[in-house]
Amino acid sequence: MPMIKPSSELRNSYNEISNFCHKYNEPVYITKNGQGDLAVMSIETYEKLVGRYELYSLLEQGEKEIEKGNVIPVEDVFSSIESRILKW
User: Fold this and answer.
1) Distance (Å, rounded) from C-alpha 70 to C-alpha 50?
2) Distance separating alpha carbons of residues 81 and 88, to the nearest angstrom
């Protein structure tokens, strides 16, 4: 269950919120005047979320290329990788 705190708690209980975010890898939702305003999370959780978004974006790009017919046989891909490795 998500932790929801009023904005005053961000100032008054920063360490508690920080510890929660790091321990559970979940955001804390901050309200302002009873309405959702912010989501606070650890840097690790944020980076994981951004990384997942970037991966999904690349996968979507790949699927579009496949739909267009822009494909390379897997054997050619592996040969190319192998030749680059051997050049090192």
Assistant:
1) 27
2) 11
Answer yes or no: is pLDDT of 17 > 80.
yes
* Domain encompassing residue 50: 45-87
- Our count of domains for the chain comes to 2
Q: What is the CA radius of gyration of the chain?
A: 22
What is the reported pTM?
0.72
Mean pLDDT of 45-63: 97
Predicted local confidence at residue 29, as pLDDT: 97
Q: How far apart are CA 67 and CA 4, in angstroms?
A: 43
Q: Kindly state whether residues 12 and 35 are assigned to the same domain.
A: yes
- SS3 letters for 2-66? CEEEEHHHHHHCHHHHHHHHHHHCCCEEEEECCEEEEEECCHHHHHHHHHHHHHHHHHHHHHHHH
State which amino acid sits at residue 8: S
